[in-house]
């Protein structure tokens, strides 16, 4: 997720959060910290108490709830910003009420201008494709999950056409270099050259990408430790109950 933040904004983590809070004119923690930490705690307990079978779907469901809570917070923050932007710029309907629909696009363009790379409005600004093998975003620091979801929303809504997409439950099947005579054994051999990628859902179709960043996430131990889920240092009482 940090790679995604850096690629889109040239910032990540606390530095990006500081820029966002300046743009929003408010501290996100003051309004949403308890809500996000509750989601973090619930998901952690669910994963810690996951079944010994790594294919059991119950923890995946909890992880999706984890993502959904963050997504709702991002949407609420964006809506508050749109209302404030419309008020400050006198974007109102015929009855003098704040026109959120009319204000949405310019408000997101303002966020893009403040948060994204300087070349965000250039014709060659990249299109980002974020893919996860699981039906959720997986394990991540709370800050990275929040910021990545926020930047994804800006990339989706701050342009005349979306500049990013998130694909869940997908994986790379094959990567083929543009030049069949070029070796791809090391990063220095690939940098600056395009590659064609096929995905498991449709392996016969290849898409061209300029830059590919592969992150494997957590590599679980071969010996089960509370199943094959993320290890925890202490026992936690579970919040979720499987009927």
Entry summary:
The chain is α+β, with helices and mostly antiparallel strands and about 240 residues long. The protein has seven helices and five strands.
Residues in β-strands, percent: 5-15%
Give the overall pLDDT as a whole number.
80
Sheet with most strands: 3 strands, antiparallel
What percent of the residues sit in helical stretches (DSSP H or I)? 40-55%
**Tally the helices: what do you get?**
7
Strand order of the largest sheet: 3-4-5
Give the CA-CA distance, first to last residue. 34 Å
What is the CA-atom radius of gyration, in angstroms? 21 Å
Shape, principal axes of CA atoms? globular
Order of helices and strands: HHHHHEHEEHEE
Q: Which blocks of ≥5 consecutive residues have pLDDT under 50?
A: 221-230, 238-243
Description of the structure:
By secondary structure, this protein is α+β, with helices and mostly antiparallel strands. 44% of the residues lie in helices and 12% in strands. The protein has helices at 2-9, 13-24, 28-48, 58-88, 100-115, 142-157, 187-190; strands spanning 128-132, 164-168, 172-177, 195-199, 202-209. It has a three-stranded antiparallel beta sheet, with no helix packed on it. α3 (28-48) runs antiparallel to α4.
Keywords, separated by commas or semicolons:
3-stranded antiparallel β-sheet; 5 strands; 12% strand; 44% helix; 243 residues; alpha+beta
What's the arrangement of secondary structure elements?
Blueprint: H1 2-9, H2 13-24, H3 28-48, H4 58-88, H5 100-115, E1 128-132, H6 142-157, E2 164-168, E3 172-177, H7 187-190, E4 195-199, E5 202-209
Parallel strand pairs: 1-2
Antiparallel strand pairs: 3-4, 4-5
Helix pairs in contact: 1-6, 3-4, 4-5, 4-6, 5-6
